[in-house]
Amino acid sequence: MPICIPGELPAQDVLSEENIFVMESNRAVNQDIRPLQVGILNLMPNKIETEVQLLRLLSNTPLQISVDLIRIDTEAPKNTPKAHMDAFYHQFEDVVNKKYDGLIVTGAPLAMLDYEQVKYWDKMQVVMDWARRHVQSTLFLCWAAHAAVYHYFGLNRFLRESKLSGVYAHQVKQEHDELLRGFDPIFNAPHSRFGEVALDDYDSQPELDILASSEQAGAYIVASKDKRMVFVTGHPEYDSDTLAQEYYRDLKAGIKPELPDNYFLNDDPAQPPVMSWRSHGSLLFTNWLNYYVYQITPYNLSDIA
């Protein structure tokens, strides 16, 4: 089944070229189907690239999904045209009374700031409290995952001496959890972050389960026992060249980044990146939509509490 997005959203052309079934909102409203309502709070600077990445992963399911793009700031990011934001994004205040089957909160390039220094931290706290009452299951990615466990459980991150950048092997810790159904015991996933929350800190919270982790990258997938919160500390949505773009961006800025681990063929940046996480990234989103959202969410969204 398709994902339902605005007809002029740039992601539609990209996804159509990849033979992914997308449906314009006007056509979707004429079908006698109750689509899943999914919100995406996109905090990444390059909104359009992130939209394509997330919509691609949401599309690999038999469920019909209607997507709202949400923003909590009033200024257009430098890497996204203001016209795009005005045309396709809802201000949070415009959807505050709506309920969603699922919500995705992306990462953000805010690694070196304390949470209280983030200009929209107050609004983030409002959104996270709102999600507990208005969303069946929320998926937090990278920076948002750490921000959420800090807000909900008081678990603060520490900053690594060097940026964790690359593709790392992870081990399944809870093989019978539905979120990991179909996963290989060891699988790859990309990370790009400075922050980390210690495994012992997650273990100290009886409401949380560590579902997958890595010797090099620490906790990767953590979920609440009620399935209403999922914290993913990496970037399963990344394209094959996203880490390369970040690496060359930092080189150009004079930051002297380390080469991403286990990423370029033969660890040679002149060679192409090796894509080794797409299947598990897709499966993670499909399992989340099926087992953490669709199988649990009430038919009448007003019943979410």
Automatic annotation (TrEMBL):
<protein>
    <recommendedName>
        <fullName>Homoserine O-succinyltransferase</fullName>
        <ecNumber>2.3.1.46</ecNumber>
    </recommendedName>
</protein>
<keyword id="KW-0808">Transferase</keyword>
<feature type="active site" description="Proton acceptor">
    <location>
        <position position="235"/>
    </location>
</feature>
<dbReference type="InterPro" id="IPR005697">
    <property type="entry name" value="HST_MetA"/>
</dbReference>
<feature type="binding site">
    <location>
        <position position="163"/>
    </location>
    <ligand>
        <name>substrate</name>
    </ligand>
</feature>
<dbReference type="InterPro" id="IPR033752">
    <property type="entry name" value="MetA_family"/>
</dbReference>
<keyword id="KW-0963">Cytoplasm</keyword>
<feature type="binding site">
    <location>
        <position position="249"/>
    </location>
    <ligand>
        <name>substrate</name>
    </ligand>
</feature>
<keyword id="KW-0486">Methionine biosynthesis</keyword>
<comment type="similarity">
    <text>Belongs to the MetA family.</text>
</comment>
<comment type="function">
    <text>Transfers a succinyl group from succinyl-CoA to L-homoserine, forming succinyl-L-homoserine.</text>
</comment>
<feature type="active site">
    <location>
        <position position="237"/>
    </location>
</feature>
<feature type="binding site">
    <location>
        <position position="192"/>
    </location>
    <ligand>
        <name>substrate</name>
    </ligand>
</feature>
<comment type="pathway">
    <text>Amino-acid biosynthesis; L-methionine biosynthesis via de novo pathway; O-succinyl-L-homoserine from L-homoserine: step 1/1.</text>
</comment>
<keyword id="KW-0028">Amino-acid biosynthesis</keyword>
<feature type="site" description="Important for substrate specificity">
    <location>
        <position position="192"/>
    </location>
</feature>
<feature type="site" description="Important for acyl-CoA specificity">
    <location>
        <position position="111"/>
    </location>
</feature>
<dbReference type="Pfam" id="PF04204">
    <property type="entry name" value="HTS"/>
</dbReference>
<feature type="active site" description="Acyl-thioester intermediate">
    <location>
        <position position="142"/>
    </location>
</feature>
<keyword id="KW-0012">Acyltransferase</keyword>
<dbReference type="InterPro" id="IPR029062">
    <property type="entry name" value="Class_I_gatase-like"/>
</dbReference>
